[in-house]
UniProtKB/TrEMBL annotation:
Recorded superkingdom: Bacteria
Protein name listed in UniProt: Cupin type-2 domain-containing protein
Origin species: Kitasatospora setae (strain ATCC 33774 / DSM 43861 / JCM 3304 / KCC A-0304 / NBRC 14216 / KM-6054)
Gene3D superfamilies for the chain: Jelly Rolls
Coiled-coil segments: none
Lineage: Bacteria, Bacillati, Actinomycetota, Actinomycetes, Kitasatosporales
Pfam families: Cupin_2
Segments forming domain Cupin type-2: 56-102
InterPro entries: Cupin_2, RmlC-like_jellyroll, RmlC_Cupin_sf
């Protein structure tokens, strides 16, 4: 455990988070776990499986970082593959769905919708 100073000089504790371990501990695929907050954004981790997910749309941008495996998306009707080590930002208002074949560990960074 390391101690650091926050933006206003307050003490805070900085603990590394093992993302693979956090994802492995989740009981079900596609159920995210919030790990931290950065400003107004939430950092979440989840496990993907091969099953598709229904289309959704958000009021704010959403960053998707594939740690391992791959994410198969459809964004505004176009197929998109995001591979391990790649980051994809889905723009606010874009309709996106998970296509079959997604698997691995995904980190999501998203601000609360207003």
């Amino acid at each position: 455990m390391r101690e650091a100073l926050g933006p206003r000089g307050e003490e805070c504790v900085v603990n590394p988070i093992d993302l693979a371990e956090a994802a492995a501990e989740l009981p079900l695929a596609w159920n995210s776990r919030a790990l931290a907050r950065v400003g107004e954004a939430s950092v979440k981790v989840l496990r993907m499986d091969d099953l598709p997910l229904s289309a959704e749309c958000h009021e704010v941008d959403e960053a998707l970082l594939v740690l391992d495996g791959r994410l198969e998306l459809e964004v505004d009707g176009a197929p998109l593959t995001v591979r391990a080590g790649e980051l994809c930002v889905v723009a606010a208002g874009a309709v996106h769905a998970v296509r079959p074949g997604s698997r691995g560990t995904l980190v999501i960074v998203e601000a609360a919708e207003g």
